[in-house]
Amino acid sequence: MTGCRFLFISSNGDMIIKISQPKNHKYKSVPQLANQNVLEVILFYKNKDRKPHQLLTIEFERFRLDSNGNYEETEVDRKRAFHNFFAFGMPSLLEGVEVDDKPLPIPVAPIVPTDSEKRSLYSYINEKLPNLAAAAPYVVESKIKASREKYEEFKTMAKKSKNRLK
Fold it and tell me: Is 36 exposed, middle or buried (0-12, 13-18, 19+ CB in 10 A)?
């Protein structure tokens, strides 16, 4: 069985709050982090005896909470999240873009946690999810490395596309 855990990490990394999974793209209010930029971390793991046992992967997203600590994902946010997939994985699905006569768009940069956010995340995992602690640094760094490599690949594709049309 697999599970996931959603966390908000404050911009300076001093506060981590576990949140419930969003429903219909709406997150529960987190008044402690109102008017702050936060890093959302989603931990995906395998369960054993109903407890997190093995960390599989991790996802990162950044956004700003409103004055009440609320965040509702908008259509623009969803489009941004899938921009690279549609532009580089399936360019024919982009509205009005012909692959043969227009350069590919600029790719969206990956979201990478700061060092203080990573330290906070590791200490949270050590304290609250000790079974995942040994693999956490490897999984996080692997995800960051893979995201950066994919971004560089997309940039190269966009440059080649632009040069081909000159």
Answer: middle
Sequence-distant (6+) residues with CB within 8 A of 127 are none
At residue 41, the 3 state secondary structure works out as strand
∠ CA 114-43-149, nearest 5°, is: 55
In this structure, are residues 111 and 83 in contact, taking their beta carbons and an 8 Å threshold? no
User: Tokens in use for 144?
Assistant: 């960051």
CA angle 64, 2, 50 (to 5 degrees): 105
Residues 6+ apart with CB under 8 A from 133: 122, 125, 126
Q: What is the CA radius of gyration of the chain?
A: 18
21-49: pLDDT as tens digits = 988 878 889 999 999 999 999 999 999 99
CB atoms within 10 A of CB 7: 20
pLDDT band at 115 (very low <50, low <70, confident <90, very high): very high
Cα distance between residue 136 and residue 1, in whole Å: 19
